[in-house]
Please model this.
Amino acid sequence: MSPRFDAIGLVVSDMAASVAFYRRLGFAFPEGAEELPHAEAELPGGLRLMLDGEETVKSFNPGWQPPSPNASRASLALRCDGPAEVDAVYEELVGAGYHGELKPWDAVWGQRYAVVHDPDGNGVDLFAPLPAQ
Model:
């Protein structure tokens, strides 16, 4: 027997804000998830994105402290259908008030690439392969 990758977990300071952010990116959180101390969205392949409120984590780990505001410790990478979608999703999120850390650009490794932050400052990488030249 060996462990298998099953879920990605993020600790969030505002469940409603985090659920709204990830729903904008297509994550299917169930109705009412924004009111819960723990929420999950199933991902392709059976993986899950799990969100836990800070108070939930403190309930079983009383010494837990959030990282400093400038110290993101996790990021999610979301593949877009093409370079134009990277630009469009980035602009939609920044236009909705989310922090854009890195504007879309053509990266030297062959991707259109951008980074936005979720409400807790976790990086969300948006990328798509560039057309072959």
The longest helix spans residues 83-95.
